[in-house]
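Take a careful look at the sequence and tokenised backbone pasted below. I need to know what the token row says about the fold.
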Amino acid sequence: MFLMINDFDYFDLEIKVFPLVSDGGFFSPNKPLEWSTNNIADELVAIVIIFGGILVAFSKTKDEDEYISKIRMESLIWATYVNYGVLILAILFVFDLSFFNVLIYNMFTVLLFFIVRFHYVLYKSKKVIEDE
């Protein structure tokens, strides 16, 4: 995310790719369904963030039971609501290329919101049990 925020290309991984969709229309040098060269660093970073987030979010806890499954489900629902709430606010108040950046970050925030809320509620519930 740091690289995306600062618009900095850290890796130089230019390889031939086969794009299904092109963004430039008829006059673009990268035609759809034709081999072209692209830096795939941002795609690799996004895939690593998504897989890492899924592993952290959905790996079993040490004492997985029905209560933790309930917390997990409620946290996922809450994260989805918050994520779409942020997206609606962005649709209303963010414009142009900044909106595109918000959409990119929005791909990852549902996992981030879920992980933060799940572990917070889990911590809070364990603290209540320890206090009793």
About this structure: The helical segments are 2-5, 41-58, 66-93, 96-131.
